[in-house]
Records
---
Amino acid sequence: MTPLKAKVIMVVNLRNALYQINRILLADYIKLVIIALL
């Protein structure tokens, strides 16, 4: 495992984690908007 490959894997994992967090936050935000509109 080269340092570069390790770095790439780390960045990909980080991006996946951020994507998951953003999806959760977006879902919560949409729920709040729907509640506000009702």
---
Amino acid sequence: KYGDGNIMVWGCFTWSGIGNLARIESVMTAEGYIDVLCENLKESLLKLGLENNLP
């Protein structure tokens, strides 16, 4: 009745607004975390007008 399922997400927010929200489908590893950042961080910075903070 009250399943013990869970969901893991990655997201970011700044004073400028809310960035991407990504659902994590599997166990998080260091390599997986880097993949999540590569897929979502740059897009979030661009969306929030913070592209000057890109390396």
---
Amino acid sequence: MKNCYIGVRLTDFVSKFIYKIENFLNKFISIYFLLSMHLLYVEIGKKDERNEGR
């Protein structure tokens, strides 16, 4: 009975840990995605300015 309880506690802990990692990764990926989109937008803006300058 005691082993079963420890197993349940362990799986609960592991699932919470995995959930935290997933949350962190989702935030990191979304921030990275926004940054890359912003940089891409800036690059396109620079190209447009160069074309208008000619």
---
Amino acid sequence: MVNLTETCADENPVQIITDYAVDKNTVDDTQMLKNRLPVIQEKMKITDLYVDGGYYSEEVELKAQDSGTTVYYTDMTGKKPASNKIPLTSFTIKDNKIIVSCPDCII
């Protein structure tokens, strides 16, 4: 999983990536933000941070407030997988592009 932080000011002629973090997809979004927030704030003064709703936690909110940063959360959050659909983990995939096997054995 990759998390990117970028500028988003209308007055900037271009927006630039200011921080990135790569971790296993099993790491919670809130944990990644909690770990990266001090690193991001060390690089530059941030007063506003826009993230999706999956990054909300009381601990993240308090850490941001303590450093003078207001976090704005969108309504975009993850959802539970549909029970009527076959998950990607049910397939065996070679070289990230060739399906070797699937649940119904039809290839």
